[in-house]
């Protein structure tokens, strides 16, 4: 899906180059005229539903926009096709729609397909518990100026696992903007700040700010190929998995 976009075109190119995969089709906007069909020697279409009956079991990969992703998930589920979703900015209702689609066909959603980021999501809660409540939790994320959602889906996921490690609800302790005379920082607060500019693929830094010391953990994505490779790894893993629940990249890693 979205093969004419930045990440979509990278995924298509890497899938085409992978000897273990067959790029069956690319989906682009009607009239976009990308020339991808000639480049990849596959079908280029604007309506996914027209080709899925001819591609039983083919995995759909979607890094587009929330509304489009939900519609695609419902289409894929209706035809029984597995689907990998890397779209961010999904609200609670849209995530519920993905969850419902996952009951019909295998579906995996991850706000970040990076192996490194998902490894961090596994180890950060342990660090929170080891350090204890005396350490304040803050995070800054930096992305290119064209990114539409803020904070990033990855930042929100990191904040969520930090909050859960302290048995807190992120909706109650998350702080996304500070301005003016705000008073002392509440102990349970988790700050998440977004910076936009340039062509930065994606940086996330988490601070553990304690008495007399601080720990900084940073993940930097050097290229979008990182996310594309993760998406293709997830697509391979998803083949043959049963429907019934919304899979995550942690399932791919086996943790």
Strand content: 15-25%
The mean pLDDT is 95
Instruction: Please report the total strand number as a whole number.
Output: 11
Number of helices: 9
Helix content: 25-40%
Radius of gyration: 20 Å
What is the third-level CATH name, the topology of the largest domain?
Rossmann fold
Q: Indicate the CATH architecture of the largest domain.
A: 3-Layer(aba) Sandwich
Given as residue ranges, the uncertain stretches (5+ residues, pLDDT < 50) are: none
Overall 3D form: elongated
Strand order of the largest sheet: 7-8-6-9-10
N-to-C order of helices and strands: HEHEEHEHEHEHHEEEEHEH
Gap between N and C termini, in Å?
28 Å
> Which class of the largest domain in CATH terms?
Alpha Beta
> Which class of secondary structure composition applies to the elements?
alpha/beta
Tell me the count of domains. Answer: 2
**Which homologous superfamily in CATH is the superfamily of the largest domain?**
NAD(P)-binding Rossmann-like Domain
Give a short account of the largest sheet: 5 strands, mixed
């Amino acid at each position: 899906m979205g093969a004419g976009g930045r990440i979509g075109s990278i995924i298509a190119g890497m899938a085409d180059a992978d000897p273990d995969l067959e790029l069956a089709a690319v989906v682009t906007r009607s009239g976009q005229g990308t020339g991808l069909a000639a480049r990849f020697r596959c079908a280029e279409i604007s309506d996914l539903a027209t080709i899925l009956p001819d591609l039983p079991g083919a995995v759909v990969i979607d890094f587009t926009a929330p509304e489009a992703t939900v519609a695609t998930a419902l289409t894929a589920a209706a035809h029984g096709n597995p689907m990998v979703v890397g779209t961010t900015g999904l609200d609670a209702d849209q995530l519920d729609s993905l969850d419902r689609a996952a009951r019909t066909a295998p579906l995996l959603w991850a706000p970040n397909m990076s192996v490194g980021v998902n490894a961090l999501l596994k180890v950060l809660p342990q660090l929170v518990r080891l350090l204890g409540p005396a350490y304040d939790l803050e995070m800054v994320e930096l992305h290119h100026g064209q990114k539409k959602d803020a904070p990033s889906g990855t930042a929100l996921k990191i904040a969520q696992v930090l909050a859960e490690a302290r048995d807190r609800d992120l909706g109650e302790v998350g702080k996304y903007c500070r301005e003016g005379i705000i008073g002392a920082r509440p102990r349970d607060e988790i700050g998440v700040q977004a910076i936009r500019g340039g062509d930065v693929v994606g940086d996330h830094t988490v601070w553990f700010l304690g008495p007399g010391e601080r720990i900084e953990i940073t993940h930097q994505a050097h290229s979008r190929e990182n996310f594309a490779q993760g998406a293709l790894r997830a697509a391979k893993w998803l083949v043959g998995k049963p429907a019934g629940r919304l899979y995550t990249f942690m399932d791919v890693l086996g943790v």
